[in-house]
Amino acid sequence: MENICKSPHPLLKMAEIEGRGRGLVSTQPLKPGQVILKDSPLLLYSASPLVTSNQQHKNTFCSNCYRVILQSPVSCPWCTSSFFCTSNCQSIALSSSHTPWICQSLNHLRNSLSSHNLIVDQQIQARFLISAYNLAVVSPSSFRVLLSLQGDPSFVSEKDVLLLHSLVATCPSANLGEFGFSKELTAALLAKDKVNAFGLMEPFAPDRERGVRAYGIYPMASFFNHDCLPNACRFEYVDTDVNNRSNTDIIVRVIHDVPEGREICLSYFPVNFKYSERQQRLKEDYGFTCNCDRCVVEANWSDQEDDAMDKDGEESEEEEDEEMEEDVDVDNEVNVNGEMEERDQDFPHAYFFLRYMCNRENCWGTLAPLPPDASPSTVMECNVCGNLSKSDELMVGAGDH
């Protein structure tokens, strides 16, 4: 099924997986909560549109590390749109992610938006292109890695390519290094961004939708494939108090025991999405149809059965009570690897929801144990709200529902 390509990490190896492209598989048995990857971004760029009237969120985050700015910000010497949390962040940015060319180009794009009808997504894509072409100059080796990532230019709208390329072409001229500047390169870059970018998120709040501070492209994390019942999840700790860019690293931990040779998969969105929502999102944003075990089962459900699932991914209370009465020993439904046994494939995500989905209001994050020390941790951490809970309390709470 798989053709091993290279070994980029002691716990992971790259594999060509039939029907799924390149992916990452385990090189040894993995324990619940084990950190399998800590990945630094090739580039980061703001998720804010070039022009915004939302003053509440304007200039809230450092333009280098994307932490919340809690004290007097340090200004950019060349523009009035970028601020930094410390002089160290300013110094780092001015030589890498916010060079004079980037600053001049972004100012030019803001001033020219009146003659271009760009929607918000296109404004953010323009930010990405400026950052990517700048990366080709400040770090050619990182730019080559970016170009090596998956992403088919045919998946990007030709209209968007022409519009964004012509817009960036009006920016102040600069030596863009050995890679030059072309429509074909712009199309390739937009394709890499579309299928590989991770969002660095704002803090969770139960009373509002969680926004994106910045997008980042990560050289290894980009190769995790999707599964609607993932065996790993990613954590980010953007507001940690460290004076370097490691706060923007992605940390990936496995959720349960994973045997050697098993593909490691993330979910590209909250696991409570119903079948039709998942398929639409994956097709539109990533260009593929999911055929994971969960989707194979749910594809055979009627519309009435699909609608019977609440938006939170759980059965209605009456149906859930009946399910719990019929099968109170949920752990018996799961094998030693934390996977559903074949006899329970009629509802493969029931155990996952009870064991690995956060039950905090409006969260729906994924739970993973804290990294194990000498013995496995029984404390589960949510990758969205950060809430900590005991694994046995989760199962008791589910039984008391």
TrEMBL record:
PROSITE patterns: SET (PS50280). Residues 10-269 form the SET domain. Transmembrane segments: none annotated. InterPro entries: ASHR2-like, SET_dom, SET_dom_sf. Pfam families: SET. Gene3D superfamilies: 1.10.220.160, 6.10.140.2220, SET domain (2.170.270.10). Residues 303-332 have a biased composition (Acidic residues). Residues 303-339 are annotated as: Disordered. CDD domains: SET_SMYD. PANTHER family: HISTONE-LYSINE N-METHYLTRANSFERASE ASHR2 (PTHR47420:SF3). This is SET domain-containing protein.
